[in-house]
Amino acid sequence: MRLLRNKFINYINNMGLKYKLNTTYFVLIIVPIMIMSIFYYKMSSDIIIENAQKSSLKVVKNNNSLLNLKLNKILESSDAITLDFELYNIVNDRKKYSSSELVALDRKINSILFKYFNYVDVYSSHIITDYYNFGSSKIPIPENYFYTSQLYKIAQEGNGSLIWVPTYQFTDFYNASDLKNVNIEYKYLFSAVKIINNLNRESIKFDDLNENSKKPLLLINFKPDLFSNIIESDNQYKDSQYFICSTEGDIVYNTDTTNMAIRKKPIWLEEMVNNKSGNIEREVDGRKMIICYDTIDSTGWISVAVIPVDSILISLVNIRYFILFLGFILVSLALICANFISRSIIKPIDKLLIVIKKMGQGNFSTKVEVKRNDEIGNLVNKFNEMDDKILNLIEENYISNIREKEAIIMSLNIQLNPHFLYNTLNIINWIAIENDEKEISKMIVSLSSMLQYTAHNTEEISNFETDLEWLKKYIYIMQNRFEDKFNVYYEIDERINFYKVPKLFLQPFVENSIIHGFSIIDSGGILKITGRIEDTTACFVIEDNGKGMSSKRIEEIMMKSKDKIGISNVNNRIQLMYGEQYGVCIKSEVNNGTKILIKLPLKE
User: Fold this and answer.
1) pLDDT tens-digit readout, 86-111
2) CA-CA distance, 10 to 13, in Å (whole number)?
3) Transmembrane segments in this chain: where (predicted)?
């Protein structure tokens, strides 16, 4: 795992910046769009499914309301017919009728039945006795069979209440095998049956029917078309199924006519029976289904709408394609923008790399052109500034090398035949001693030491203590030359003696004070030399009370370049060696003396 991670990190690190940016933009763009699309699709699906559940359940309830209206009328009529006095007299009269009398009675009962059950939805209505089947002639009900049939048993269980019998196949229910191969319109029926226990007389009293005979039975038959006329118009989803079943699972009606008059007991039937009404989500034959159900109050049967979820979401297909198309457009536009942004970042960096290669080849004059104020623009501008500084440093280094070579040449010139110079000075010294010229002898010895310091010590820097000793010898000679013209005072921090300083860096300033500063006085000149340490800086001050100078003169001195060993040269040497934060600062006023401050870093 760690090996794969390291390989992946190495792969990312070795990718070009352009590809990294484009990949990053692609991920940052496509991932949110995908998440938003999935979230939107899921949210839309949930809303559509929820709305479908609500609307389907509402349709089922509306269907049940219509069915209840129809079936309650049958229930009311079945109760009303038991109050019919004429029917009471007919069924309670137990005399034997002739055939012609039965036909006449049948017409009377038919008219009574017609009065109470004259509905389009009623296929046939009957009053069945043990001696004759009165009523509609649409269905040939066997006379001797009925009281042993399942219908009669169901009616007896009702004990005078109207019982609804789920859809059955006529030929099987009445054992009419001779009609099985005949195309009859009453192949499937569902019925309402009721034992007539008593009838109301005109006296508004309930009298039991003759107990010595079998009770008459009210039979009302319906075709399943009663349901289809209401339900099929609401079948709006593809592959959806609508059926009505009893609490035992007997199919009363099914939009799939091949599943009529059978018993099915799905695992969710018990939940529907207990809850009466609601929604269930189940998987049926590998498909996720929404099952909306509601109980028909008049019969106790359950109306069920089974709708495949994919049929509900069929309307989302176009939305899904639209989301994909919109996502493709957005991703394309985003990638174009990302490519434009990455190019705007990479292009100046590529230019920068080209210039860096040229710098590596020694060409420091090329600049990167950029017209922007962002981070890339700042980077390029800083690079151009760095390039200028490098070029300046190269030029300064070149000048420094030239000056160093000139100094070496001067040093070599000074060293020409030093043995001859030393011998000559030694001869002059002995002559001065013989003539008792002690001051001259002392001056010659100082000069010899000075020549030895400059001739043999070719280093650019030396200890301040050594350089100060040389300066003191130089000042001694100058004091003898300008007798009684000035006095010298030293305030030197002893800690500074062991730090390195540029060789002879104080001499030009001391010389300037003696020769120029004291040029208009004969005596009373004061030259003060101070050395101290401030934090990490060595500060040297040369101060005189001479004639001073103007700011213009100071500027001329500092800008003077031909003077290779003068004041401006010292300042340039210091800044070349240590940086521009160090160097010489001159403060002076005409007739008010001069103060020179020299700052050096502490170097051991």
Assistant:
1) 888 787 776 777 888 888 888 999 99
2) 5
3) 21-41, 321-341
